[in-house]
Amino acid sequence: MASPRIPDELLKNEELIKELEAIAKDAALMNGVLMRTKDSPNSSETVNYAPFTLFPSRVPKVLFNQAIDISTHFNRLIDRVSHSPHFLEEALASTIKVDNFTAKLFNIYRQVQQEPLDMAIMLTLNRSDYMIDHADGKDTLKQIEINTFAASFGGLSTSTPNVHRHILKVANLLEESKLILDNNPAAGLAKGLALAWELYGSKRAVVMFLVEDVQRNIYDHRYVENELWARNIRVIRRQFEDVSKSGFLDKNKRLFVDGQEIAIVYFRNGYMPQNYKSEESWEARLMIERSSAVKCPDISTHLVGTKKVQQELARPGVLETFFPDEPETVAQIRATFAGLYSLDMGEEGDKNVAMALAKPDQYVLKPQREGGGNNIYGDEIRCVLERMKNSTERTAYILMNKIQPKPICNYLCREGDPLKPKMCCSELGAFGVYVRRGTEVLMNECVGHLLRTKSVEHADGGVAAGVAVLDNPLLI
Ligand code: ADP
Ligand code: MG
Ligand code: MG
Question: What is 339-402's CATH number?
C-alpha cells in the first residue's frame, strides 16, 4: 500500500465529513471515551464524549519507536535525579527564591530528607511528551517535558483506537484502519500500582486516589481504578480536605484516612498552587510525604518534573553524571532535547535574555507550572522579559527553543464546536512505569502512548485546558 494517509478528497468532502462526525461521536460514547460536562463536572447524570480528532494523525514509525524505546531510560533518569539531593538543591536554588509554589514543595522535600524511610518503595507513573520538529526540513523527535505528577489520559487513550478504526472503515480506508495500534496504558499503570501495593504488604490497605474537587476527567481515572478493583485491590478517592480532617500517622508512620490504612497515595491533584486551598492542604501533603505509604510520585520525583530541572539536565556533561558508564544511554536521551536555556542572574542568563528578545518567535518562556496554558510565546515574551530582565523574577522561568512541527489538516470534535478543517500539530506521549524497592528494580516499562492534537492557532496545549484533543498515531 502507498504511504498511509487520509486522502485530500475525503478531507474536503463536507457531506461525508458531516456523516462521519455523527458516527464518530457515537463511537466515542459507545467506546467509553467520556468526560463530564463543564456545567456539571461532578455529576455523571450528564456526560459527553471527550474531545478527539475525527481522523488519526500521521506519525513516522521510527520516531514513534524512538519515543517508546527511550522511555525506560527516562524512568531510570527520574529515579537517579530524584535521589540526588545535591543536584536538586543546586538546580532549584534560584527558582525557589522567587517561585513560592516550588519553594513550598521544596520545603516539604527538605523536611522529609531529614527522616528517611527504610526500604521505601518507589513508584513512578510518568509521561514523557514530544513533538516532531520540522524546522530544518527533516523530522526529529524533541521532548517537550516529562510529567512525573498526575500524567493523565492513560485511561481514555485505551479506548480511542477503536473509534478511529471504526471511522476509517466507514470512510472506506480499511487498510489504514488496520494500522491503528492497540494501546492500553491503563492496564500498565495499574500493573505498577498493583505491584507497589503488594510490596507494601498489607491486604487490608487501600489505594487512595488524591483528587480535586472538580472531577470532570473522572472516567480517565476510573479506567485505572477499575483495573485495580479487577485485581481485588480496594480504591478510595479523597481530597486534601479529607486527609486534613481524618488523616493521621501511627507510631510506625503508617497513614490512615477515614480509618483505612493507605498503601499508596496516587496523586491526581496537587500540581497547581490553587490545588492547595489552605495551609491545611499543605499540612496534609506533608503528612502524606512523611508517611510510609507509597507516594506516586514522592516529593522528590515531583520536583524532578519541574521545567527548571529539565533545563539543568540539558546542560553539557550533566546526563553523564547520572549515567557514567552508559554513553549510549546519554546519547539517546540527549538526542531528544531541544535547546533549553537558564535565565539565572549573571552573564549566561543575560545572554539568554538578549537572545530571546532578539527573536521571540523562536522560543517559549516557561514558568514552573503544569496543566497547560501557562507558557509565554512570541511578542508576549518580549513584554514579559523587558519588564523583568534585570530582576530575579526571571529565574522563576526557563527558556526553550520553540519546536516547529509540520501542520496537517484534521477536524477536532469538541462539545459545542462546529466542525471545521483545521491545520493541526500533534504531541506524542510515552507512559513510563517504574517500581523499585531498595536496590531492586521490579518494573521498568513503557506501558503505552498518547497522541494529542491541537489547532496551530493555539501556541499552548493541554486537553484539560480545552485546547488539545485525543488522537491516535497513524504510523507511516
Ligand atoms: P504543561 O506542563 O503545562 O503541559 P508544557 O511544557 O507541556 O507544559 O507546555 C504546554 C504546551 O505548550 C505543550 O503541550 C505544547 O503544545 C506547547 N509547548 C511547550 N513547549 C513547547 C516548545 N518548546 N515548542 C512548541 N510548543 C511547546
Ligand atoms: Mg505538557
Ligand atoms: Mg506538564
Answer: 3.30.1490.50
